[in-house]
Amino acid sequence: MHKKHILIVDDEKNILIGLSIILKKAGYKISTANNGVQALNILNEFNNTSESIDLLLTDIEMPDMTGMELIDVLSKNNISVPKLVISGYGDKEMLVELMKKGCDDYIDKPFESHELLGAITRIFQKIEKKQEIAQKHEQKKNIEKMEFDRMLESYKHNYEKLKSEMDSAVGAYQDLINFDMNTCNIPVAYHSQTYSNLGGDLLDIRNTSSGIDILIADVAGHDMGASFHTVLIKAFFDENCRTGNDGQSFFQILNKQLLDNGKNERMVTGIFLRLDLNKMEANFVSAGHPPPIYISKHNQELVNIDVKGPVLGMFDEPSYITRTLPVIKGDRILLYTDGLNECVFLDEKTGKRKKLTINGLNNIVLKHKNHFLRQMVKNIWTDVLDYCSYKHSDDMMLMGMEIP
Predict the structure, then answer these.
(1) What is the enclosing helix (H) or strand (E) of 271?
(2) What CATH number corresponds to the domain at position 28?
(3) In terms of Cα–Cα distance, which of 207, 197, 211, 200 is closest to 233?
(4) Averaged in consecutive runs of 10 residues, what is the pLDDT profile of the chain (404 residues)?
């Protein structure tokens, strides 16, 4: 078993001899120095070797370099070693200062051998406890990383499978953004329009045992790269429906994959909505996406759901939050991409351009909120297209749902 190596520093020869005898009998390996300069040389000599110093036992008052100065030099040179100070002067202010400088403990002269050995034992026990905690923490991190990597691989496998089945980019993208509204657990209605043949907007809805999961996402760009990212996002959402992970976990996993594909290559925003009809609550997680619109059946008020989070594919360790909203039968929720609120009206007479904005979209929604769901969504869509004279400059997507 490895013997603990203690360096004793004291300018009195008899004390050095006495302490060495006590500690050697207790099973410790001993080195000695009669001043701070010698101690520093010994520490440097043994540093990062198999016989490195495990504890510095030092007096305070010594010639050439005091114990206090020695501790300052160790700190300045980033030499980390546990420290037990021998004090013979009862200077409490000095002892407080020593503790601030990183001393682990002190012992006043005169002392009995069992007091010294007890203090040393406590220091080593404290160090071992810290090491155990650090080791357990590292083991936990490794286990979590292994589990995260395992889940990531399953998502990537599903992505590769879907990607290999693409006959053409355009056809695949059209398949991605179209689904049968009549198969959903709840009433839904949606409209979408790409800026070109290929786009980056995605809407996917999956029934669950307690309700429904909805993902709306917006990949920057309107090219094949955007469509391939859309395929990836759909594949990961498909896999998430199998695993049942919540929106926060889903976005963290998706963000990791987007970063692996190339940091800052494509910025992605999105909303993950999990509707639980058993608890009658809607859980929103946002990744830098425009706020969902909630229309209360109770008082017909319109509210923009305040849920925020960092965009996907940009940051190494993003943190996402879940916003939970109680719902009742007849409440409605609208999700959309920024192609709607950022569409532009061009005044042909003045040449001035004016964005619709979220407030402008809210006003359009209020105008049609009392219609049946599908008619409401259709009318909102038509008004937005009228606003920009059907000359949109981005992909556009709008989805409305009603709580059954």
Answers:
(1) strand 268-276
(2) 3.40.50.2300
(3) 200
(4) 85 89 91 88 81 88 83 86 79 74 82 88 89 88 85 81 57 60 90 71 92 94 70 90 94 93 77 98 98 96 97 93 98 97 89 94 97 97 93 88 97
What was the pLDDT predicted at 152?
84
Total tally of structural domains belonging to the chain: 2
Same domain, 275 and 180: yes
- Could you tell me if 270 and 218 are in contact, meaning their C-beta atoms sit under 8 angstroms apart? yes
What stretches of 26-82 adopt beta strand conformation (E)? 29-33, 55-59
314 in the same domain as 212:
yes
| Residue 129 and residue 170 share a domain | no
**109 and 175 share a domain?**
no
Q: What pLDDT, on the 0 to 100 scale, is given for residue 251?
A: 97
Residue 270 structural domain: 166-402
**What number of other Cβ atoms are within 10 A of residue 34's Cβ?**
19
Cross-strand partners of 345: 354
Are 7 and 39 spatial neighbours (Cβ–Cβ below 8 Å)? yes
> Does residue 159 sit within a domain?
no
Tokens of 404: 């059954």
| DSSP alpha helix (H) spans, 165-243 | 169-177, 224-243
> What CATH code is carried by the domain that includes residue 323?
3.60.40.10
Rounded-to-integer distance, Cα 225 and Cα 231, Å: 10
Is the model's pTM score more than 0.70?
Answer: no
Establish if 12 belongs to a structural domain: yes
- Cα–Cα distance measured from residue 245 to residue 240, given in angstroms and rounded to the nearest whole number: 6
Would you say residue 112 lies in a domain?
yes
Same domain? 172 vs 101: no
Q: Which are the contacts of 212, defined by CB distance < 8 A and separation ≥ 6?
A: 184, 185, 186, 205, 206, 274, 275, 401
Q: Are the CB atoms for 62 and 36 separated by under 8 Å? A: yes
Q: Are 23 and 8 spatial neighbours (Cβ–Cβ below 8 Å)? A: yes
Q: What are all long-range contacts of 133-141, with beta carbons under 8 Å and residues at least 24 apart?
A: none
Contacts of 210 (CB under 8 A, 6+ apart): 276, 277, 278, 279
Instruction: Assess whether 223 and 352 both reside in one domain.
Output: yes
Q: Nearest to residue 101, comparing CAs of 131, 62, 46, 58? A: 58
Q: Is the distance from CB of 218 to CB of 197 less than 8 angstroms?
A: no
User: Do 198 and 112 sit in the same domain of this protein?
Assistant: no
Q: What is the DSSP letter of 61?
A: -
Both tokens of residue 115? 């007091």
